[in-house]
Amino acid sequence: MGEIKSDTSLVSLIKVLHNREVQVRRAAVLTLSKYPLSQTESALKEALDDENWEVRMYAKAALNRSSDNERKSIEKTHVFLLDIYEFITYPF
After folding, report:
1. Domains of the chain, first to last
2. What is the pLDDT of residue 38?
3. What is the pLDDT of residue 67?
4. Is-contact 58 33, C-beta < 8 A?
5. Cβ contacts of residue 10 below 8 Å, gap of 6+?
6. Element of type H or E holding 71
């Protein structure tokens, strides 16, 4: 299901976060972690309050992983822009 990434499957996964079976909620969080954070952030944050520590841990890991990826992307862009600035400012 994590590979389909349609709006319908996303809505279904978010609903599953309220399932009474911990294994189902845990699997839903793991699958949601494959979606872009912009689509799943609120659901993953809600899972941080789950009664089960594993669900909370997986949700935290998913949020951290997404944040790290976004941070790395921003850092790469920053370095690229600095390189362009140096090239323009100090041409050969």
Report:
1. 7-67 (1.25.10.10)
2. 86
3. 62
4. yes
5. 32, 35, 39, 40
6. helix 53-89
Q: Provide block-wise average pLDDT over 10 residues at a time, the chain (92 residues).
A: 63 93 92 89 94 92 74 60 66 61
pTM, two decimal places: 0.67
d(CA 48, CA 60): 7
Which residues lie below 8 Å from residue 27, measured CB to CB, with a gap of 6+? Answer: 16
Q: Which amino acid is at 75?
A: E
Q: Cβ–Cβ contacts within 10 Å for residue 61, how many?
A: 14
Backbone torsions φ then ψ of 49, nearest 5 degrees = -100, 10
Which residue do the tokens 């912009």 mark? 38
